[in-house]
Amino acid sequence: MRKLTAALFFLSAIASPSGVGPLLRMERSAPAMGTTYTIDIYGRDMGIMQAAAEGALEEAARIDQMLSNYRPESELSRVNEQAADQPVTISQELFDLLSTCVDYSRASQGAFDITVAPLMKVWGFYKDSGRLPHRAEVRAALDQIGYGNIELNPASRTVHFARHGVSLDPGGVGKGYAVDKMAGVLRKNGIACALVSGGGSSIYGMGAPPDNPKGWYVRVRDPKDEKKTAAEVYLRDESISTSGNYEKFFWAEGKLYSHIMDPRTGFPAEGMLSVSVIAPKTLDSEVWAKPYYILGRDWTRAHKQGDFQVFLCEDKPGAACAWVR
Predict the structure, then answer these.
(1) Residue 20: how many CB atoms within 10 A of its CB?
(2) I need a labelling partner for 226 at 20 to 30 A (CA). Which of 22, 132, 141, 232 fits?
(3) Hey, where are the domains in the chain?
(4) CATH of the structural domain 75-168, one choice from 1.10.10.410, 3.40.50.10840, 2.40.160.40, 1.10.3980.10
(5) Do 75-168 and 236-325 agree at the fold level?
(6) Which of 315, 319, 322 is nearest to 256 (CA)?
(7) Contacts from 2-9 at CB under 8 Å and sequence distance 24+?
(8) Number of CB atoms found within 10 A of residue 13's CB
């Protein structure tokens, strides 16, 4: 079993009126997929809590083995290496996730696209903080992207790329998918109250902590000032994900270029500072934060799903951060 880097904190918060013992709190964390996953759990049985947390963090490690594009042995890396030459048989789990990603791309009119990897590489965001490419490089990368190049065969459970150069980037789905799966492991292990965080940008709140029946408190930072708060939310069996231009960026020729790429134009999206999405599933909130960021307030208002809440901070003079109504 993979050794987990973890931190534990215990708190006897509330004495039980039924005499079954105090309410305990435990926090665990471990690295996976280039970020840190954190679990905050309340419960009354430390053994159950420890086993649940261990299982959830092992789930994050398992998904890392499936989705990482930094691990040459991962299932996704094998697809990227072989799928342009021949159909590649993949696990049902990865097949279902790729099918879902294609659905997201259609629904977002291509603003979300898991084949954006060539653009991320040419802009230097794959393993570094970014660089300004030549326009010829961008045009060449655009020729290699497009979700229409993903050919999925449910009968043989294979994926094939329609052209060479196509490459999948899990950066827009991995954290949300992992957080949802981790929350599922906690539930199966009897946990009813927990907060699961993927790098602080994709978060799921299960139940409500004992000190706040409204749910788990999450602060949305001001994109221009980390010390300021733009919004306060409470999660109760729902998620929040935030995409902001402050997460990864570089300056060139006096202009800021963020890692949030518009796969239709080949350039980083403009006009927005950050977008936060509240949704029942963390995969949904993480994925949809990108199209809402790229396509803007009017498109978001017209296409927002009914059970989503969206908080936008636009990059316009005099524009204030606000919820989309």
Answers:
(1) 9
(2) 132
(3) 1-69+170-207, 75-168, 236-325
(4) 1.10.3980.10
(5) no
(6) 315
(7) 2/58, 2/61, 4/28, 4/30, 4/54, 4/57, 4/58, 4/61, 5/29, 5/30, 5/31, 6/30, 6/53, 6/57
(8) 13
Token output for 309: 């809440």
pLDDT score recorded for residue 20 = 61
129-139: average pLDDT: 94
Rg (CA), the chain: 20
If one counts every other C-beta atom within 10 angstroms of the C-beta of residue 80, the result is: 19
Q: Which of 215, 160, 226 is nearest to 193 (CA)?
A: 215
Report helix, strand or coil for 130.
Answer: coil
Q: Which residues, including other chains, have CB under 8 Å from residue 287's CB and lie 6 or more apart? A: 101, 104, 112, 172, 173, 176
Q: Dihedrals φ, ψ of 194, to 5°?
A: -160, 155
What percentage of residues in the chain have a pLDDT greater than 70?
94
CATH class for domain 236-325?
alpha beta
Q: Summarize pLDDT for 42-89 with one digit per residue, the tens.
A: 999 999 999 999 999 999 999 999 999 989 999 999 999 999 999 999
Tokens of residue 272, six digits: 């927005």
Contact of 258 with 248, CB cutoff 8 Å: yes
Supply the pTM of this predicted model: 0.92
What is the Cα–Cα distance from 2 to 63, expressed in whole angstroms? 13
pLDDT value at position 306?
Answer: 87
Q: Does position 318 have pLDDT exceeding 90, yes or no?
A: no
Distances (CA, A) of 10 to 21, 149, 207, 219, 261: 14, 50, 19, 23, 41
